[in-house]
Structure formats: C-alpha cells, structure tokens
Design goal:
single chain; alpha+beta; Alpha-Beta Plaits; 2 domains; five-stranded antiparallel beta sheet; 4 helices; 24% strand
Length: 183
C-alpha cells in the first residue's frame, strides 16, 4: 500500500508530464490506427494519379500529332456516298500515274457501325504492277486528298505469264460520312 501511495504522490507532483505523455501516447495510437492506413491509401492513389497523368500526357501528344496531321492533310474529309466515286477516281488515277494496271474493281456493301461518325465502303481490287510500282503505290495511298482510304488486306503473287509483274488482290476500305448527303 505504501507503494501505491507513493505512486499517487509522484503522479500528482508530475501531473503535467503525465498528461503530456498520455496525450502523446493517445496521438500515437490515433496516428497508427487511423493515419497510417490513410497514408498507405494515399500512396496508392498517388501512384494511380501519376499513371493517369502519364496517360494524359501521351493522349495530349497524340492529339497534337493528329492535329498536325489534320493540318498537313488539308482537305481530307469523309466523303458522302455520292462523292465516293470521285474518291475512287482519285485512287485509280493516282495508281495509273504510278503505272498500276487495274484489272478489276468491285465495290461491296457499305458497312454501318453504330456509334461511329463514318461508314466503310469495302472495295475488292485486282491490280498488276512491277514490284517498284506496287511499293510506290502502297506507300502513297495516304497522300490522297479526296477520300480517306486504308488497305484492309492484300495478297501478292507473281504474274504467271510475265514474271517481272506482280498480281495483287486487295481489299481497301473507303471511309464515308455517316451523315447522309454531307461531305
């Protein structure tokens, strides 16, 4: 009992120190119970934010690059179905200027996808050209001004009668405006 009396007397004499130590212990417990899990979560969110920031910077650079392409392509736009013939004429005239011989051109049914501002007109082609003409033609399709055309697939074989020529069967996609009657 004597020891407990001494302890009580010691606590009363050092009341300020005991209160300060108690507050410090309470703050430490609160810190470890509440704030450490929050800090861990904050670190995870920070990492996620840095990742999103990197993706945003990448997307902005792509947008800037695409804007530059749009500015450099000038008048390239989605053509209407009525103007598709003009785009195909430009395509074939461009090929002919490079020495491409168009054996057949067969437009297929227009593909309409929901939620996109364009339609796709697939066109099957059979062409004949030398290897240099073919490479030059394939490399310059993107330079067309009246239509946006991409190559969907192609199959190349040497011509059976003239081994200096290649025969190619291709499917190209011409992108058309989804708005009817607009260019």
């Amino acid at each position: 009992m004597r020891d407990s009396g001494r302890l009580i007397k010691l606590i009363k004499e050092n009341q300020i120190i005991v209160i300060a130590v108690s507050v410090l212990i309470a703050i430490s417990v609160i810190y470890f119970i509440i704030f450490i899990p929050l800090i861990r979560e904050l670190k995870v969110k920070y990492t996620e934010c840095r990742l999103c920031e990197g993706q945003t910077v990448y997307a902005r650079s792509l947008i800037g690059y695409a804007s530059h392409l749009d500015a450099s392509s000038g008048e390239r736009v989605l053509v209407s179905e009525k103007e598709a013939a003009e785009g195909l004429d430009e395509f074939t005239n461009h090929g002919k200027s490079l020495g491409i011989n168009f054996i057949s051109i067969k437009p297929k049914e227009i593909i309409v996808k929901e939620g996109v501002p364009y339609k796709i007109l697939p066109i099957e082609l059979e062409i004949e050209a030398t290897d240099k003409q073919f490479v030059s033609f394939m490399g310059s399709i993107d330079e067309l001004k009246k239509a946006i055309i991409t190559v969907n697939s192609f199959d190349i074989n040497p011509d059976r009668q003239n081994r200096t020529l290649l025969e190619a069967k291709m499917v190209i996609n011409m992108y058309l405006s989804a708005k009817s009657g607009s260019s």
